[in-house]
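Work Package 3 (structural annotation) set out to generate three-dimensional models for the target panel prioritized at the project kickoff. During this period the team completed the workflow that converts sequence records into discrete structure tokens, so that structures can be stored uniformly alongside our sequence database. As a representative example, we reproduce one entry of 442 residues exactly as it appears in the project archive.
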Amino acid sequence: MTEQPSSALWRFVQDDDPSALTLVVDTPQGTHLRRIPPALSLPSHVDHGTGAEVAVHTAAATWGMPDFVFQQTEHAAKGSGQRELGDCLLLAGERGAVVQVKARTIPPKPAAEEARWIQKVAAKAMSQAKGTVRQLRMLAADMVNGRGRILSIDGSAYEWIAVFLLDHPHVPDETVATWQPIGMPAIALTRRDWDFLFDQLRSTTAVLDYLFRAAAEPPIPLGQEPVRYYEFAAADAAASPAEVNADLVGKGGTLFSAPLLPQAPAGADGTKAHLMIRMMLEDIAVSQLGEALTEANLYTLLSDLDRLPVSARAEWGHLLLDMLRDVPQVPEGHCKWRFRRMLDEAGNRQIIVGAATRFDRVVQASFSAYVQLRHHEVTSRTGKAEESSTLGVLLTPRYAGKRLWDTCTVRVHGDLPLSEEKLSVYRDAWNRGAEESSTDRA
């Protein structure tokens, strides 16, 4: 048992499965147990090194979203040779990670030699990551995501972190990977650590945020990332809520506060409600692209929705299911609406989810008006129009076929050119004596 600076006590306990571990963390808020299985098995049809890269992609695409995991479409020329732009890029919103996977493909040597090998490949991985970011900032490159769609990546548009991922059968105890500074955040993980983070959070945005947070701390021994995670989670649970003006969302706004990092894994409440957000993400991801919805716009929509805090997703899922059950219960010819809105702590990102009785052109136009109006109202109060965006997602029940609902999205950004006449129409439709059916949140 080792005492940590955060006043949390932790220990690993051998699981019934010899390849798995159980982490026991004692904090002032109680004892938390988390079974940490081994990393995903490597595919058998490729060599070890390539298999480790494939497994890293699989974990991020399965527990995160395939739309946020990128590979190079083809190697970029550098002089007379080729330069590979990372084994994997993880992108969500304005943050990106260059992931370099290093696998031990021969039987391990004595601990001291293995530790030296790890230091060597860590330094190489960080140098490669630095080169990838430099190349992407010099010249945008076409990258293909896990859904087979191509996006041009301009490195100057992202805040980057370098991630060294080690695939090793037995890392020597207390091995801390080190490297020379590379001019950007950097972190070393084992493949088990990587799988743990994605399985715990089920959100690419949340994993990226964690990586940046952890990289700002002193390095820890490889394989102990779950310990650091639970130290952060305990600190989040004990932290006081931030001061946020709930009136920014208007009448009925309430302050919602939840830990950035949940102590229980996503979906641990025994229901599948948290999967509602993943299903909405999938609905958006498989949308038909066209003139209005380009690859870049689709990426932005998905990134905005994936910012929904992990701690809130199960509750939002339950609410959405309730909305879908409720909105059909109206007389024929009528339409019932239910909404939930959330404004982030910074006051410049708003998410609206809702449900309506049916979907047609009138409902679509009405929802667009609602999103524009709420965006205008919030930005008028915050004074942050130029840096603000609002994403609206509307679910409407389907009464035939296998699908249970249709999904409609509207996103607006910046200062909207709404005339006073149009605003008057929107207010008359949505604000005239109406009480929203569900609580708006700041």
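Residues 246-441 form one domain.
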